[in-house]
Amino acid sequence: MQISASAVSLTVADPAASAAFLVEHFGFTQAMAADGFASLTREDAGMSVVFLRTGLETLPADQRDEHAAGLILAFVVDDLEGELARLEREGVAITMPLTVEPWGERAFQVRDPNRVIVQLVDWNG
């Protein structure tokens, strides 16, 4: 098997709102969109992010009403404090303050309009 691309697909109530959040605050580009669907790319992210509206009949019945929960979109960045300051200036609510773990991970979190958790992290501590 050869993998040519990777994506994470999340079901949310309002795909356009989640897409706009990643475009505005995290530099993603909307590659494709349709009713109930948005696909975002960012060359340096290593994966695409896809938002699907909950209830879409194209999804298997046991997945249609599942909201993206229990997962974190985590992005490793070079300047964690700079990103934290930028997001605060942009008015994004920080939902988990900058935290330092004993193993050297430093991270903070925000949530998009559909409550999807986005975490910025570094290992540079």
From TrEMBL:
PROSITE patterns in UniProt = VOC
Gene3D superfamilies listed in its UniProt record: 2,3-Dihydroxybiphenyl 1,2-Dioxygenase, domain 1
Which part of the chain is the VOC domain? 4-123
Locate the transmembrane regions by residue number.
none
- Spell out the protein name for this chain: VOC domain-containing protein
User: What organism does the UniProt record list as the source?
Assistant: Actinomycetospora chlora
